[in-house]
Amino acid sequence: MNSILQVIPLNYYVALAAILFSIGVMGVMFRRNAIIVFMCIELMLNAVNMLLTAFSTYHGDASGQVMVFFIMAVAAAEVAVGLAILVMIYNNIRTVDINELNKLKW
Amino acid sequence: MNPSLPFFVLATLSVFSALMVVLSRKPVHSVLYLIFCFFTIGGHYLLLNAQFLFAVHIIVYAGAIMVLFLFTLMFINMNKELEPHKSNLLKGAATIAAGCLLLVLVAITKGAETLPAISKSSDIGTVSNLGKALYGQYLLPFELISILLLTAMVGAVMLGKKDVE
Amino acid sequence: MVQFAWLIPMFPLLGFLLIGLLNKRLPVSLSGGIATLMVFLSFVVSAVIFREVAQDGSVPERVVLFDWISVGDLSIPFSFLIDRLSVIMLMVVTGVGSLIHLYSIGYMHHEQDHPRYFSYLNLFVFFMLLLVLGSNYIVMFVGWEGVGLCSYLLIGFWFKNIDYCNAAKKAFIMNRIGDLGLLLGVLLIYNTFGSFGFREVFEAARNFPENSEAVTAICLLLFVGAMGKSAQIPLYTWLPDAMAGPTPVSALIHAATMVTAGIYMVVRSNVLYVLSPGASEIVALVGLATAFFAATIGLKQNDIKKVLAYSTVSQLGYMFVALGVGAYQTALFHVITHAFFKALLFLGAGSVIHAMSGEQDLRRMGGLKKVLPITHATFLIGTLAIAGLPPFAGFFSKDEILAKVWEHSPIMFFVLAVTSVLTAVYMLRLYWLTFYGEFRGTQHQKQHLHESPATMTIPLVVLAVLSTIGGFIGMPEVFHTPHYLNEFLAPVMWKVNHHSASETFEFLLMGISLALLLIIMFATYNTYVIKNVMPEENDKDLQGFAKLVANKYYVDEIYEALITKPLNGISSFVYKFIDQGFIDKLVNGTGTSLNGLSGVLRFVQTGNIGGYIFSMVIGIIVILVLTMIL
Questions:
Q1: Mean pLDDT of C482-498
Q2: Chain C contacts of A97, Cβ < 8 Å?
Q3: In terms of residue numbers, what domain contains B152?
Q4: What b/e readout covers C159-187, taking b as 16+ CB neighbours within 10 angstroms?
Q5: Residues of the domain holding A93
Q6: Residue B97 falls within a domain, yes or no?
Q7: Which residue has the higher pLDDT, C338 or B85?
Q8: Does the N terminus or the C terminus of chain A have fewer Cβ atoms within 10 A?
Q9: For chain C, what is the mean pLDDT?
Q10: What is the pLDDT of residue C440?
Q11: What is the pLDDT of residue C475?
């Protein structure tokens, strides 16, 4: 499986990660459903994870992959808490439309 | 077979499914596309020889996180399309902004191709190698992560309870 | 024992802290006792050191407590100078001080605020000792400012009376003018001689040419400080007003000790003044003018304490004349005797006021001789001492000043002699009006008349004894007895003219002054007791010179018109136009405009999360672009 490293230059992965990240950003701006916004954030995290793994492999340094492992753990924690908050919001105001969550202002 | 073919196939699939996550009207479709996207990213991990990460990725993301998402959707019964979509102007603005970001990101990382590859040894992603790193150099953060997860669990349970007294 | 000199100011400081901090938690009668004990302990230590210095103390000793200011080349130790001059002042301050503390216990008996009074009084003694002991101008300056502060606090002791508060402020501000002069003088000393230490400065000054401009400037600036502290023209008007404080305070601060700080300072700097005959001449002239004018004002005052206050100003003028003509020991001699008899007179007046339930007007007194026998006897001694009847203390010191002035300038001698006559006149007028004739107060006051308690009479008696024998430390040469004071002080002085007037002149002077005094005694007795001439009830009935004098030459009014009013005018102009019109608007305008801008800017916070994310992404793009470009 070493072949992949020989045939695919590193910057292909960089470009792929950038594309996935940008799609995530677009989704965050695009959608109003808080759950989907959440999913887009996960997408962005995954783009970064993939880039880290790519760098780690190409450089032969395990640290990058350890970081990915940590990011996954933090993401899991974040999703658990975030979704719990969302459920609570929905229980209270019967919507998860982020445009309705605009009480925090002057 | 062209050795670079798996990469391009996986890349196309992940970009397509990511786009579908954003563009699908129904939240359930978004979730399903996201699962598919995660699987393709998992494929990239395999291509990159990171078997351990592949396993963890599938378990955490495709297994746990996505189940959470589906459960949440089920809880709040968001089966059909509930959200009134944003105006086209805003959509356009969002797309242009994201495109700009992509452009800038690609432009700014252009220098990456000149980085020399230090080592081509590809067995660092194995379980034994990563295990050594995790329980050696990164032991303390590794243990701290467990506290973080515990805290998150407690927090989620607290938030999920009704009428906390 | 000299090494224990730090104990001397330490005791009153301890007393101040103890009484001031415990305050109301102390038993009522205890605060006065502690304060008196502390000052008395200082007196004991001072006495031991005095003995030591008197026996062998040939070299002045410097006691360094700690390094105080040490910046670059400048090093100012917090140190005391124990020499013959400072031990004499120590004895006067702690001796008279402890007597007055004792007196205060009785005098302040009816007051509520015991601890505050006694803590201030102890603090005053502490600062006064610092002033006297300091071995450089800076430590002296600290004491100098400290006594000014305590004077302010004690004049305004009854701070609920707005007039008293104003008197306190007046004293403080007038002193401040003088203190600025002193500070400039001290800085100029450093500039000229490169040190603040007395020893170094005088060492350097000895090799200085006479009449140099720098030394004259220093002397004049120091004298400005002395003017403020020792109430000389033109800064004397605070002292009569300072009588607003409790009477023991007037006795301690405004008669015996603090106001003589100026004289002490000039005596201490005698090396500099010797070098500058011009400045000395000015000192003498200012002193002369003060002595004369204050004495004339004293003639027409009807408030018992005001008379004594003007008499103090006048006597201080005497001392400055002595300083001006180069008779430093004589000035110090008069400081000592004056401390005795003026403290005695003030305390006697306090006893009278105490008996009269707070009445201070001479026109309401009279006939107190029988009711207040001890007060009367001691007050008589004080009066005779200040009037200059031999063998009481005032006679010797005053006579010595007159003799020294005669050598210097017969015209000045003549003015001073007239002043001395005036002194006798107003003091005897005060005496006759207070103790002889019919009682002129209300029936209520008459019933309350009583001799003061022992705590008050003991200090009176001690001071009366001192006023009687105090003069013998400086007998005139004609009696061929040693002049103890001059001999004692000789090591501290530099280039003092020792040749005195001829014997015939001395005897003539004594004879004339004695004869004049007797004449005045009978004349005033005739006027105020036999003919029973009373001061006018209303100042408006007065005519001509008498009116001018009764109104203190309108000096306060002149100051008011020439200085206070224009200053107020300028201040209110600056306040209205510059402060309110410009600075306030600038400051408030900054605030108001920021407030307005924030009011506009807060609408940016819409609460719309989509909008926030959008701006965040734009921001990220901009930052990345900038990173790329730069």
A1: 71
A2: none
A3: 126-165
A4: eeeeebbebbebbbebbeebbebbbbbbe
A5: 3-100
A6: no
A7: C338
A8: C
A9: 85
A10: 79
A11: 73
CATH code, domain carrying B31? 1.20.120.1200
Indicate yes or no: CB of C621 within 8 angstroms of CB of B94. no
B70 touches chain A (CB under 8 A): no
Q: Which of B90, B101, B108 sits opposite C617 (nearest CB)?
A: B101
C-alpha distance from residue C608 to each of A106, B86, C199, C604, C612 (Å): 12, 13, 80, 10, 7
The verdict on a CB contact (< 8 Å) between B83 and A66 is: no
Whether B77 and B3 map to the same domain: the answer is yes
**Euclidean distance between CA atoms A100 and C294, whole angstroms:** 89
Which ipTM score applies to this complex? 0.88
Question: Residue B101: its chain C contacts at CB < 8 A?
Answer: 617, 620-621, 624
Contacts of A45 in chain B (CB under 8 A): none
Task: Work out the number of other CB atoms within 10 angstroms of the CB of residue A97.
Answer: 16
Are the beta carbons of C48 and C86 closer than 8 angstroms?
no
> Does B8 lie in the same domain as B77?
yes
- Asked if B104's CB is within 8 angstroms of C621's CB, the reply is yes
Same domain? For B64 and B3 the reply is yes
Query: In three state form, how does the secondary structure of B87-99 look?
Result: CHHHHHHHHHHHH
One-letter amino acid at C87 equals V
Q: What is the number of domains present in chain B? A: 2
C73 phi/psi in degrees, rounded to 5: -75, -20
Identify whether A84 is part of a domain.
yes
Work out whether the CA dihedral C115, C121, C126, C130 comes out positive or negative.
positive
CA–CA min distance A27, chain B (Å): 5
In a domain, B115, yes or no: no
C-contacting residues in B 24-83 (Cβ below 8 Å): none
A105: in domain: no
Contact flag A29-C613 (C-beta cutoff 8 Å): yes
Contact of B56 with chain A, judged by CB distance below 8 Å, is answered with: yes
Contact A10 B112 (CB under 8 A): yes
Contact list, B105 vs chain C (CB under 8 Å): 624
Q: How many CB atoms lie within 10 A of CB C520?
A: 19
pLDDT under 70 in chain A at which residues? 1-6, 106
Whether residues B77 and B130 share a domain: the answer is: no
Helix (H, G, I), strand (E, B) or coil at C78: strand
Residue C540's pLDDT is what? 62
What confidence tens digit (pLDDT) does each residue in C176-229 have?
A: 888 999 999 999 998 888 888 888 888 888 888 877 888 889 899 999 999 888
| Contact present, C165 and C138 (Cβ < 8 Å) | no
The total of structural domains in chain A comes to 1
Please identify which residue in the block is written with the tokens 């009428």.
Answer: B163
Nearest-neighbour CA in chain A from C592: distance (Å): 19
Chain CA centroid to CA C444, Å: 36
Q: Is B101 a member of any domain?
A: no
pLDDT for res A1: 46
pLDDT of residue A106: 61
CA-nearest residue to A100 within chain C is: C608
- How many CB atoms are closer than 10 A to CB C570? 10
Residue C367: burial class (beta carbons within 10 Å; 0-12, 13-18, 19+): middle
Option in A8, A35, A76 nearest B27 (CB): A35
Q: Inter-chain contact C621–B97, Cβ cutoff 8 Å? A: yes
Per residue in C415-454, pLDDT (tens digit) is: 888 898 888 888 888 888 888 877 877 777 777 777 888 8
- Residue A66: phi, psi to the nearest 5? -60, -40
Residues B66, B8 within the same domain:
yes
- Identify whether B150 is part of a domain: yes
Length of chain C counted residue by residue: 630
The answer to whether B144 and A70 are in contact (CB under 8 A) is no
Close Cβ partners of C316 (under 8 Å, ≥ 6 residues apart): C230, C231, C232, C259, C260, C262, C263, C287, C290, C291
Q: How far apart are CA A97 and CA A93, in angstroms?
A: 10
